[in-house]
Design goal:
The structure is a single chain. The protein is of the alpha/beta class. It has 2 domains: 4-120, Rossmann fold (3-Layer(aba) Sandwich), CATH 3.40.50.2300; 131-220, Arc Repressor Mutant, subunit A (Orthogonal Bundle). 42% of the residues lie in helices and 19% in strands. Strands 2-1-3-4-5 form a 5-stranded parallel β-sheet, with helices on both faces. Helix 4 (85-93) links the parallel strand 4 and strand 5. Helix 1 crosses helix 5 and helix 6 packs across helix 8. It binds calcium ion.
């Protein structure tokens, strides 16, 4: 999934070096100059990460962070001009994920952002990075989008997602998914795999999440 970073920084030269470094890394950015622009920008764009200068003209980065944290757990990295322990502690205590002190290497910031994104990927279901199974609502998200699944598609995909890379034979899937159904045929499994794949490809046209193992069965790609 493409990453989009919101940069709140009032010094254009600093923002530009960051925007350039992110672009080099294939990451797109939105840049705002004021703390007050952070929440509207978050509401209007699909943002994955916030880089927040502490010293902004209209309010402090700390206050912006607190406001964001009222509604969102999006990762936040502070840019601070002051190399004081107190800033670091305050920043991390109010919910930031990391900080860098100016002057900094833009590449280092990019590397830190990537590391934090890896660490903070949705963890509801740690077994898979791209699927999230909501057991209580019987729903599955694929890359952040809810899939419209039938009961058997849900059970089938949930089974695969819960043990990525495990190859299930059609018989095993019939036992697990169609446990109480009569007259299930192997081609029933195939037909449901086919419709599931079509639904995954609505989210990602290149999706190859479900792997066919010829003569063996199916698995979910790790
Ligand atoms: Ca500043």
């Amino acid at each position: 999934m493409p990453t989009h970073v919101l940069i709140i920084e009032d010094e254009p030269a600093i923002a530009e070096t960051l925007i350039y470094a992110f672009k080099e890394a294939g990451i797109s950015t939105t840049h705002k100059l004021l703390g007050g622009e952070a929440l509207p920008a978050l509401a209007q764009n699909a943002i994955d990460f916030v880089i927040l200068d502490v010293g902004l003209p209209d309010m402090t980065g700390f206050d912006v962070c607190k406001k964001i944290r009222e509604t969102s757990q999006i990762p936040i990295l502070f840019l601070t001009a002051r190399n004081h322990e107190i800033d670091r502690i305050v920043g991390l205590e109010i919910g930031a994920d990391d900080y860098v002190t100016k002057p900094f290497s833009p590449r280092e910031v990019v590397a830190r952002v990537k590391a934090i994104l890896r660490r903070t990927e949705p963890q509801t279901n740690k077994k898979s990075n791209t699927f999230m199974v909501d057991e209580t609502a019987n729903r599955i998200q694929y890359r952040g989008q809810h899939l419209e699944l039938t009961r058997y598609e849900f059970l089938l995909l949930k089974t695969l997602v819960n043990q990525p890379q495990r190859v299930y034979s059609r018989d095993q899937l019939m036992d697990i998914v169609w446990a109480n159904a009569e007259n299930t045929l192997e081609r029933t499994v195939d037909a449901h795999i086919k419709t599931l794949r079509a639904k995954l490809r609505c989210v990602d046209a290149a999706s190859e999440a479900i792997v066919t193992h010829r003569g063996m069965g199916y698995s979910l790609q790790a």
